[in-house]
Design goal:
alpha/beta; 578 residues; disordered N terminus; 5-stranded mixed sheet; globular; 19 helices; 3 domains
Length: 578
């Protein structure tokens, strides 16, 4: 027995634990003494750790004696046994923090985090949870959208926003003119009639900065085709605090253009397609059909891109595009007007030659082509109100634009597996992620246009006066945008009422721009085939910009597409040389 006990004691002294012995051969007193010795040694170690911690606290907080004394006093109160639990808790919390940080970093690298972590109250947490569940439901519902879009009974919600019932005399308008009857009603009627003639199911939603009386509302209804629903949001101007002292409550008229976002969110699963515009924009079935056709081509390219390398050159002006690039591409539009008899366009064309001889590739025979203004600007001859001030059949040399000149454009050839061909990249986006950028051959390459303008330059940006999108694309806007596309606008100052205006909400600066890190940096494209190009022109039927804009900024659209064709040929030559 002595030999076995000596063996146990030697193993304890060596620090490698107890030797395996028969339980009956160990003296109980010796075992208790050994356990007390081990316990004493353990607590001595804990005491040394606590003393070291106190010393470190005094060293680090020597400039804050009161805080140092409090910390030392608090640690001294903790008994050794509880101090062990305290250390174990700290280790656990540190482990939890590190694992959570690694997990969030992994999610963000996969694209699942929108860029920052926000801490919420319990109520906000419940709201966020409900929102996430709704988003999941929305994505599931969106899976059937492609079938719906191709069906003849596409359900369209056409949203029109109007700030005034009568013109105020500003921006080239006639003071006191009945804007409702002279602009909104006839243009709305023409737009919706065009859509229903293609068997689209259309409903109309009016967002008004005034109250529409029952009699005036009946005028709107009488001008719509049968079976078209109408809903009116009267006095829809949001209310907010005065931005100077934040004490006075006032109407924020510039943010009336924000209100269509609430309507879209409310109606998201009642319709397949949303068309939201200012009250003087003429939208036809040609625009919608073109938009759907190009969107379908882009979806096809995105499916093909999943089989390509994830990283492609962001500097190429032809060939394949990655999924990260293509997911930010959408069909674009530019606003136009029809020249009045006493109005003039620029006398001197910007220094890029106009070339109206178009060909599909270098081997085909060029053909002289012009734009077809009937797609954008042709009016019914029976609409007497419009025919008094707008021509029913404008010619190609009458169509002009005022905020879309050759300076802002680049051209690029899209993958040849699609029918898109060469496109113009509209200005606006400037994503910080270089892998998401889409490069093109700038129109001013060679120095003919001087210094290249900034992406969001207002003279070249090309405000649209609204937008159209499928349900699935609305969800993509919400995912891709830095800040919310749909309400609630939690990341905006003052719920989006602070400084955000009509150019931001409906003009396109949020979707297509990058201003002040608020933009979504989505890339609009224009197809350069003249026939399809004509369906990308949106008629601003107030027709008043030509009265207030300098002539040198008023560009004939036929000249613009001719200049873009010239730039396209220069890009093709550059590719052959490389």
């Amino acid at each position: 027995m002595t030999n076995l006990i000596d063996s146990r004691q030697r193993n304890n002294q060596d620090g490698f634990g107890l030797a395996v012995v028969e339980e009956s051969t160990i003296n109980n007193d010796d075992f208790d003494n050994s356990r007390k010795t081990n316990t004493k040694g353990f607590f001595d170690t804990i005491q040394r750790i606590r003393s070291s911690l106190i010393t470190e606290i005094r060293k680090r907080l020597h400039n804050f004696p009161m805080l140092s004394r409090f910390a030392v006093w608090w640690i001294s109160l903790i008994p050794p046994r509880f101090f062990v639990l305290f250390l174990m808790w700290k280790v656990f919390m540190l482990t939890l923090f590190v694992s959570t940080a690694v997990h969030l970093l992994y999610i963000q690298m996969k694209g699942g985090v929108r860029g920052k972590i926000t801490y919420h109250s319990y109520a906000q947490h419940q709201s966020l949870l409900q929102h996430m569940q709704a988003q999941h439901h929305m994505m599931e519902e969106a899976k059937i959208l492609k079938i719906d879009e191709e069906a003849p009974s596409l359900r369209i919600l056409h949203i029109v926003t109007a700030i005034s019932e009568y013109n105020n005399g500003r921006r080239g308008t006639v003071r006191g003119e009945d804007r409702l009857q002279q602009v909104l009603i006839p243009i709305l009627g023409e737009s919706v009639k065009s859509m229903t003639e293609q068997n689209f199911h259309v409903d109309v939603y009016l967002i008004l900065g005034f109250t529409l009386t029952d009699e005036r509302e009946q005028l709107v209804r009488d001008n719509l085709p049968p079976n078209v629903g109408l809903e009116v949001w009267n006095n829809a101007v949001p209310i907010g605090y005065d931005r100077n002292d934040f004490k006075a409550i006032q109407l924020v008229t510039r943010s009336l253009s924000r209100q269509h976002r609430y309507v879209i969110k409310d109606k998201l699963f009642h319709y397949d397609f949303f068309s939201a515009w200012e009250d003087d924009m003429y939208i036809t079935s040609h625009h919608i059909q073109h938009y759907l056709e190009v969107s379908k081509e882009l979806d096809k390219l995105k499916e093909e891109a999943l089989l390509l390398p994830s990283k492609l050159s962001p500097f190429a002006i032809s060939g394949n595009l990655s999924y990260k690039q293509l997911e930010k591409v959408f069909p674009g539009f530019i606003r136009v007007e029809v020249l009045k008899p006493n109005s003039q366009s620029q006398k001197f064309i910007d220094p890029i030659p106009v070339d109206l001889n178009f060909s599909n590739d270098a081997n085909s025979i060029p053909q002289h082509k012009n734009i077809n203004p009937q797609y954008c600007c042709g009016m019914s001859e029976t609409n007497m109100i419009l025919n008094k001030r707008l021509p029913a059949h404008p010619t190609h040399d009458q169509v002009v634009t005022w905020e879309s000149r050759i300076h802002g454009y680049s051209v690029r050839e899209f993958p040849r597996s699609s029918s898109l061909g060469w496109v113009a990249l509209q200005p606006g986006p400037n994503p910080s992620d270089y892998e998401a950028r889409i490069s093109g051959y700038w129109s001013g390459t060679g120095g003919m246009l001087g210094e290249r303008p900034t992406p969001g330059h207002p003279r070249y940006f090309g405000q649209q006066g609204g937008f159209m999108a499928t349900r699935a694309q609305i969800l993509e806007f919400e995912r891709l945008c830095t800040k919310e596309f749909l309400p609630p606008f939690n990341s905006f100052a003052d719920d989006g009422l602070d400084r955000m205006n009509v150019e931001f909400w409906s003009g396109g600066q949020q979707l297509w721009g990058n201003g002040a890190k608020l933009g979504c940096n989505l890339q609009r494209i224009l197809i350069l085939d003249p026939e399809r190009f004509s369906k990308q022109l949106l008629y601003h039927t107030a027709n008043n910009k030509q009265n207030t804009i300098q002539n040198r900024r008023i560009v004939r659209v036929n000249d613009l597409i001719g200049q873009l064709n010239n730039v396209k040929k220069a890009a093709m030559a550059a590719i052959l040389k490389s």
